[in-house]
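Before drawing any conclusions, I looked closely at one protein, both as residues and as discrete backbone shape codes, quoted below without any editing:
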Amino acid sequence: MSRTRLTAAAAVAVAAATAVVLAPAHASAATGSVHLAKIYYDSPGTDRGSNASLNAEYVQIANTTAKGVSLKGWTLTDASNHRYTFGAYTLGAHKTVTVHTGKGTNTAANRYQNRSWYVWNNDKDTATLRKSTGTKVDVCSYNSTRVDYKNC
């Protein structure tokens, strides 16, 4: 086989392999996902533990798929393993849910951890979202004191 034909054959093989590897990523992106969208880790004002201040600390989770997704048993944790577990709850198609640290009444758009102190560190932390099976869905980290939130 000539060198030109060998090079062309190698190029075709690489292109075919690349297409196979890239196809699932494009298909996945086209169908959307459930993912961490934003962490508001430093609520306004002094951290004195009022419920209003605790609820101004939150994580938003977005569903960019065309169908509702049951989050029953899914967990949201920080680096210190503070854990929030979703009860029976479905995040609607193209919807976002805000998980507040403090106390409140759960709705379709807002969930509450019912904690009496802050979860998210004001300087750096990592949020991890897992399915009920323990499979990691998404991770979002921040390391900053210059802003109060992180878009994931």
